[in-house]
Amino acid sequence: xxxxxxxxxxxxxxxxxxxxxxxxxxxxxxxxxxxxxxxxxxxxxxxxxxxxxxxxxxxxxxxxxxxxxxxxxxxxxxxxxxxxxxxxxxxxxxxxxxxxxxxxxxxxxxxxxxxxxxxxxxxxxxxxxxxxxxxxxxxxxxxxxxxxxxxxxxxxxxxxxxxxxxxxxxxxxxxxxxxxxxxxxxxxxxxxxxxxxxxxxxxxxxxxxxxxxxxxxxxxxxxxxxxxxxxxxxxxxxxxxxxxxxxxxxx
Length: 251
Description:
single chain, 2 domains, Ubiquitin-like (UB roll)
């Protein structure tokens, strides 16, 4: 085959492919006619899901931008990730994974903190139960606050109570709130240092409380910022008049 014939054959092949592509791109057979959504859909109604993608489905089976559709779904409240796939010849399948909330986040209502450390908005502020702890901290520190929350959990449970709140202040000071409203000043430090400090407190505060006829559940507040001990206030104990004086104890 000479050069002229080869060039002609190549030109014909390119023309055929171009015509086929033109036909596929414009053929109504490949227009997107439906979207199947599976996975976690408990917090978004079908109408909400449809509205989210109505303006983002542009093009047909071949030209549709799947990333654009994925972002539309992931912008919805509660949705953590969305996996979007084509189903030949005219459908899309979407699988949603929702956030699993472990706490309320920040003083501003309407935000939750997921188990992965992501902050997300609720579709309805009334959805957040009062039983969720309140975690607070500077922007970008949600994952750190969540880590310390989990690290403190076992020692808190040993006291027969739960964490009602945990706050990281801008200067690095931590305040723990035990249910229902006992404020524990943890001071500054790494997650490991904070956990060790509170664990020492949890191991001995029951003995301290027993000296006053109380239990760990009677704690009103405590300050753990001492190098060799802590200060604790117990419900119903007047440390100004009742012996032994004060409520400080060292280790």
